[in-house]
């Protein structure tokens, strides 16, 4: 019997489509699922798409693979992934590769890689983005793990990955151990920020200009022809155009305004706090989802908290629409700049040696945040691999300079009209903090020294100093 070049265990939506993608690309794929019915239905419904070898037991599944064996695990993250890895470990041999393509927390991936390396197995934690459709038609793939496993695995993954317009596969070896899952996590964090910013733009247009969803859909569709062109802007127009069959209303008006989350935004923010990287756009987006789901608090506040917005009106309709577009673009650049900062910080902390420009390259197609301007990000890092922040790249600095007035007007108008725009506002505050000549941090250092003798540094003399606050208030060198 011919053996399979690759195996997939876990055949829910993602695993099933990934297995079909391998088969459609000419690979013989071994398939397995804990409950065999999913394996049987995959072969019954799609067996004609390529060469599948279905197994009911994990033992038969492993036996159906070419040596060295490559097994893609696509099950629920957390405990289930550990359970499947433990079972596989007893069946695999040194030199075999386990790929965890689920949404694992990168620290779990680091732990698993270490444990499996001690047993002679290669463990590759790989981010996969693009949802159900991407898994089938070509996702963006972010594999970590040992570089030597990429020699075998890389060509297979590159074949099934999405291709950018220039034909480059959206898959690259990100770096050792948890690097792949870390980058996927930040990708999702940026996705949160992007979606929140789009949501705020919609809300401002809706409330500020009293437009209906269908009218706003046309604005997004038009924006999708320019610099903002992206999958998320495109689907925003689709969602806003959708009419609810039951009520005849816009679908967006009958959907509960309580945003869910599966945790990758929260992970991104937690990691950013540990690394000391201000990812304010992602944090605001994550908290905005949390506020939307605080049903009790929102109910209690409605009708009690006053708006005091007066009778402020936006008079220049076209001008405001253009302002919102520019504010959205500038805030989006901030979210990406912060996400790239976080990847760089983790790469330095964990010794991953990640090439930042490559991240923008592999996000150009297949993934949820695919966007026209990722090409510009790649170019920025090609011009200067040590760019301190994307915001100072000449291209982006100029683009934002053109829109900064609009950005300020939009943030001010959101405050004046009482339409919450936390991600717009905090992105602008981040921009202003970076460009400020002096920050009030000097005062904070003074306060810290006052109550905790935490000391401070001076602008004019080297060294560390403390003022004797409860004594004669003279300064001493600490
Ligand atoms: P899922 O709902 O997260 O997981 C269901 C799969 O896990 C089923 O095959 C299930 O087997 C298996 N499973 C659960 N517990 C198990 C255990 N203890 N032992 C063995 N198998 C177990 O599936 P999914 O939505 O396809 O996602 C798979 C992975 O991809 C997840 O880590 C997810 O976070 C990640 N991901 C999902 C998306 C997406 O758009 N859905 C996008 C990117 C990444 P049974 O059928 O036997 O229950």
TrEMBL record:
Residues of the 6-phosphogluconate dehydrogenase C-terminal domain: 180-470
Q: Please list the residues that make up the active site.
A: 184, 191
User: Where does the source fall among the domains of life?
Assistant: Bacteria
Q: Which reaction does it catalyse?
A: 6-phospho-D-gluconate + NADP(+) = D-ribulose 5-phosphate + CO2 + NADPH
Q: Which Gene3D superfamilies match?
A: 6-Phosphogluconate Dehydrogenase, domain 3, N-(1-d-carboxylethyl)-l-norvaline Dehydrogenase, domain 2, NAD(P)-binding Rossmann-like Domain
| Pathway in which this enzyme or protein is active | Carbohydrate degradation; pentose phosphate pathway; D-ribulose 5-phosphate from D-glucose 6-phosphate (oxidative stage): step 3/3
Please tell me where substrate binds in this chain: 103, 129-131, 187-188, 192, 262, 289, 448, 454
Identify the keywords attached in UniProt to this record, alphabetized. Gluconate utilization, NADP, Oxidoreductase, Pentose shunt
**A Pfam cross-reference name:** NAD_binding_2
Coiled-coil segments, which residues? none
Q: Does the keyword DNA repair apply?
A: no
Q: What is its EC number?
A: 1.1.1.44
Biological process terms in GO annotation: D-gluconate metabolic process; pentose-phosphate shunt
Record: residues binding NADP(+): 10-15, 33-35, 75-77, 103
Q: Tell me one GO molecular function of this protein.
A: phosphogluconate dehydrogenase (decarboxylating) activity
Uppermost EC category? oxidoreductase
| SMART domains named among the record's database cross-references | 6PGD (SM01350)
Q: Which family does it belong to?
A: Belongs to the 6-phosphogluconate dehydrogenase family.
Q: How does it assemble?
A: Homodimer.
Which PANTHER family does the record match to this protein? 6-PHOSPHOGLUCONATE DEHYDROGENASE
What role does it play? Catalyzes the oxidative decarboxylation of 6-phosphogluconate to ribulose 5-phosphate and CO(2), with concomitant reduction of NADP to NADPH.
- Protein name in UniProt: 6-phosphogluconate dehydrogenase, decarboxylating
Q: What is the species of this protein?
A: Demequina lignilytica
